[in-house]
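Review form for a predicted model. The reviewer records the input and the model, then writes brief findings.
Reviewer: anonymous (R2)
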Amino acid sequence: MAVDKACPVVLRQRDRLEVLAFLHPLAGRQLVKGSVEPGEGSAAAAVRELAEEAGIQGEAILDLGTWQATPTGHTWAFHLCRAAADLADAWSHHTADDGGHVFRFFWHPLDVEPTEEWHPIFRDALAVIRQRLAETAANRPLSLPGL
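Model under review:
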């Protein structure tokens, strides 16, 4: 099945490993994710979505594979991304998506199960990300600054 969604995975290491997430004003806690445009690769789409939804310039540094999101029928591609600059603990970003929303960004500890505040598809996506990162670490250490 062709990849039609791209999800940039931005991590940071503090007391524990954390993943970038946001609060959508209408749809709960989520990860950055968006459509792959015609003729666009999923890594490029992940970097573009990171800029559009979070205001972050970055680069895709590792392909974490794909996932068939059965409830929606979409195929997601996960890409580990590195931000071009250090990121704050929390911030808000106005996006033009769906007529314009303010997304409130935060860091979610990967070892903490997502609550009911998370949209169900993103609870599943977090489980996939945890699994893929564990598989990647077993095969080769992650070599990101601060990790």
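Findings: The chain has one domain: 5-139.
Further findings: The beta strands are 5-13, 17-24, 28-30, 34-35, 58-69, 74-83, 91-95, 101-109.
Recommendation: see findings above.
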